[in-house]
Amino acid sequence: MNVLKGILRSTPLIRNAIINNAAALRPLATSTISPIVKPVDNVPSSTVEYDKLFKRVELEMKGVDPAVLLSYSWFCIAAASHLGIEVTKSWALRKAEKERHTLLKCVHIYKKHKVQYEIRTYFRFVHLQRLTESTCDTYLEYIERNLPEGCALKVTKVEVQKMPEHLTPPTNNE
Predict the structure, then answer these.
(1) In sequence order, which residues have a C-beta less than 8 Å from that of residue 90 and are 6 or more positions away?
(2) Which of 67, 126, 147, 165 would bridge with 59, disulfide CB 3.0–4.6 Å?
(3) How many folded domains does the chain comprise?
(4) pTM
(5) 138 located within any domain
(6) φ, ψ for residue 15, nearest 5 deg
(7) Domain of 82: which CATH number?
(8) Of 79, 67, 58, 57, the residue nearest 122 (C-alpha)
């Protein structure tokens, strides 16, 4: 009813257009909408592709600011929990990796006057277990889109595969 009062208070041009076209307006339908289902032909089982299974997915995050890296790892863990992905480990290296560069203040002389620059790189790791390929792709796309500046992400996947036919399980011949 408040919407109708707001419309009636609007400019005369809009009010007249709404009142004149009131016959064209109709109430919202209350029936439920059923989805259109297309019949699926009998697809031979040889053409069906199954999702890959990953035993473990390892995320290695690298950055220059430890607070941003910690926040991003929390974000990754929270996103995994919302998708029902099991997080087994999450840790950081104790010390940062340091890269030092020494430069002379003056190019030609005064070897005593040097300046030393240091770049520290911090690491965090997250291990995820038992993922399907579709879940993994969705999760990785989401966290890659939200990767903060100054951070890098490296993903390593360990896939579960069928045992080759030329290998047989050991027998109990003792």
Answers:
(1) 73, 77, 124, 125, 126, 127
(2) 126
(3) 1
(4) 0.65
(5) yes
(6) -60, -45
(7) 3.30.70.260
(8) 67
